Fold each of these.
Amino acid sequence: MKNSLLVFGTKNFNNSLNEIKDFCDFSLTFCKDNTVFDEIISTISALLIDGEACRDPKNLKLINSVKNKPILLIERLGFIEKCNYTDKTIFPLMFSDFNTRIINLISSEKFNHNSSLEIKDYIIDKNEKKLKKGNLSITITEREIQLIELLFNEKNPLAKNILLKKIWKYSDNVNTHTVETHIYRLRKKIGSKFNDQNFIINSKEGYSI
C-alpha cells in the first residue's frame, strides 16, 4: 500500500503536481477545502506545502497546528520563516529528487516515531536509552525501557507474575524479587533526577504508570 501525501497549495501548484502524480511512489491527496483539513490530516503519512499558500495567515495558522506529521515545504518566493516544516526544497523541482525526498522524509519519520515514546511529561529515547523531561535526562537500561513501555501501554495495573512472564520470560511459579529490584532502582533514579515519586504506581492490583 502506497504512503499518502496531503498537498496543500495554490491552484497552479496543485495542477503541476497533478500531472506527475501517477508516476510517484506515493499517492497525492489535494486539500481543496480548509474545513476538512483536520479530517484528512489524520489519514496521511506526510504533508506537502506550497510556500506560496503559506502567505495566507489562515493557511499558515492551519499548517502550524499540524502535529506528529512530517512536512515538506516547497519554497517558491523566498524563505517562509514562520512556517513549521521538517524539510524544504526549491520549486521548480526535478521529479527524481522530489520522489526521493518524500520517501526519505516518510522513512525518517517512521524511524523517529519507533525510536521515541512520550509518557506523561517524559520522552523515552530508545536509541540513546534515556528518559528525558525538559533539559534533564537519566540513562535507563533496555529492561527498564521494556518495563516502562509495557506498563504505559496497559490500561490496568499489571501483577508481578505478568511482568516476570512478559519481560523476563519467567514461568509463573518462579519466586524472585527481580521485579521489585528493577522498579526500586528505576524509581530511585527518577526520584533523584526529576523529583517524581509517582511515575510508577504500586497498588494491590499491581504496577501501573
Amino acid sequence: MGKRAWLEGGLMAAGVLLLAVFGGVLLYRTTASRLALREFDSVQAAASAGDVSDLALRADREIDFSLWSSRRVDAYRTSQAKHEGAVLAVLRLVRWNIRVPVIEGTDEVALNRGAGWIRGTARPGEPGNVGIAGHRDGFFRPLKDAAVGDQMELAVIGRTMTYTVDAIEIVSPRDVRVLRERTTPSLTLVTCYPFYFAGDAPRRFILHAALRDGPAGTGNHPTRSPSREPETASKRRNQ
C-alpha cells in the first residue's frame, strides 16, 4: 500500500509539472508575440514620421555612434535587421482580424513568438513567393476554415501588401514545389495537417495567395537577390 501511495504521488507531481510547463509555453507564446507586435508597430510609426530609415526592429538609442563612420553605422543596422530572430513583417489574417509577427527562421523559438519566414523563399517585401510557416495549434489554427477569396495583408516597414487566396492544397512534408516562385508575386502559408492530430502530423496544409493589384499592393519592389532552395517542409515538424 505504501508503494502504491508513492506511485500515485509521483504521478500526480509529474502531472502538475507537465501542466506548469504547458502553461509556461502558452504564456511565453502570448507575451512574446505581443511584444514583437508592439516593437514592429513602434518602428512602423517612427518610419512613417521619417525618424527611422532601416528595418532593425530594436531600440539602439543607447549605443553611442558618435565615433562610428556612417558606413559602419549602416552596416551595423543592416546586420541587426537580418539577425536571427528579427521581426521581418506582420501578417494579418483579415477574415479573423488576427495579426501575427513574422520572425526570421522557422525554429521553435521563432514559431512560438509568431510565424516564421522560410529561408530560401522571397523575403517579405521582395517580389517572388514569400513562404511563411506557423503552428497548426497556434496562430495558424483558423486556416482550417480558410477559403479561396480570403484576403491577407503583409506589412513591412513603410508598406502593406494585400494578397488574395487563390489555391489551397494538402501535400507531403517533402513537397518543396509549393514554395517555388509562381507567375505572380505570392504569399504561401504552411502548417501541419490535420489540424487536430496527436503527434507528428503526416501532411502539410498549404495556402497560396497572389498579390492583389491596387494601392495596398503597389510600390517599388527591390530587386530579388538569388536565393537558396527553400527549406523542406519536413524540417518544420509539428507546425
Amino acid sequence: MKVIAILGSRNPKGRTAQAVEALIEGLRAGGAETETVFLPELKIERCRQCDDEGWGLCIRKGECVIKDDFPKVVESMRSCDGAVFGTPVYFGDLSESMRAFLDRLRRICLHESGKDNVRGKTAIGVCVAGGGGGGAPSCSVSLESELSTSGFDVVDMVPVRRQNLDVKKKILSELGRWYAGNPKSD
C-alpha cells in the first residue's frame, strides 16, 4: 500500500507535522510506503472562478487551467492507494494552503474524468489546533465535508489540540498501522 500525506502546515517540525508523522510511522510499521507533501512549499494558487458563471475547464473537463504545482500533487495522490490530509487549525477551520488545494480539487472532481482515482479512495484527516484547541472539532467537520465532496471515503477524522498532542500521537500511530492493512472501507 502507498499513502500520500498532504499537509497544509508551513512548519515541518510543528505540531501538525508531528501528528501526521506519528500516523506515517504507524503506516510504515504496517508495511505501507509513504510520500509527504507540504502545500505551503509549493506554488498552488486559489481558484480563479474562470468564466462569467464562476467555472471553467474544471466543470467541463475535470481539469484546472492554472499552471502551478496543483496537477503534480493531484497526480501523486491519484497514484496512491490512500491519502492523509493534515492541517493546522486557523480560526476553527482549514489552513489557507489546504483550503486553496481542496477548493480546486473539489471543482475538478465534479467532472467524471476529474473523479478518476479519487472517488472511493480512502482518506484520513488530522486537524491540529494550537491555543485553546477549541477549533479542532469544527475544522474536522470542514475537512471531512471537503474530502467527501471530492469523492473520498473518509475512514477517520482526528481532531488534535496542543494539550493532547502526546496522547493523540500514540493513537495516530496505531491508526496508521490499522490503515496500512485496511486501505478499503468495509
Amino acid sequence: MYDKDCSTWSPQGEIPQIKYVLNAVTNGTVILGLRSEKYAVLGAFKKQQQEKFSSFDEKCFMIDNHCGIAVAGMTADARVLAEYMRSETLNYQYTFDAPMNIGRLVAQIGDKCQYKTLIAGKRPFGIGLLVQSWDNGEAHIYETSPSGDYYEYEAYAIGARAQSAKTYLEKHFETFKTADLQTLIKHAVKGLDVTTETEQHLSTENMDITVVGLDTPWKKLTAAELKPYVDALKADQPVAMDTS
C-alpha cells in the first residue's frame, strides 16, 4: 500500500516510488562521462531489444550546439526531459542572444524531477542523465537523478555494471585534465569495454561516443570515426586519427 504514490512514506523511512525509479536507472545500460580542460566526452553502451530484428536503443541526444546528454533508465522519460531542455536552450538563445548556461539548466532539471516526487498521482521520472557542455571556456560533466539530486563531476558512470567503469575512471581521472580529445575518447571506449559481459564485445553499432568542447560543437562520432578506437581496443595499439 505504501507504493501507490510518491507522497507516502513506508515504515522503513523510504518512499518506494523513488526507490523503484532509482533501480530503473541502476538497471539501465551503462553510460559514462569524462572531461578535460577543453573537452567533455560521453559514452554509452546501446542495447538491442531483439537480436537481429531491431535497431539499437538511442542513448545520446543533442540539446544544443554546446550541450548533449546520455541517458540510463526509461528512454520515454528521457525524451520528455530532452524536449524540455531543447525548448529552454532555444528560448534562452532567442531572448538573450547567447547560449544558455547549462549548470542553470541542470538545476532546473533537478527541480523538475524533485517536483514529481511531491504530488500524489504523479510518478517520478525514471531516468538518470549525464550532461556534457562547453560553457564560458570550460568543459563540464553533470549527473542528474530521479530524486532531484544533481552533481558535477570530473568523470562518472551510471547504469548496469557502472561500478566497473567507475573503478577504471578513478584510476585514470587525474590524467584527464590535460588530455587531448583523442585520449579522452580512448578512455571512454575502454571504460565502456570493462562493463561489457564476457560474451559481448564493443562494436561501432552498440556504442555511442559524443564530444563537445573548444571549437568543437556537439557531435556524435560516426561508425567510421569509432572504428579505429574499436580496432585499437582489440589490438591494444595507439590510434592515429583526426576527430575534428
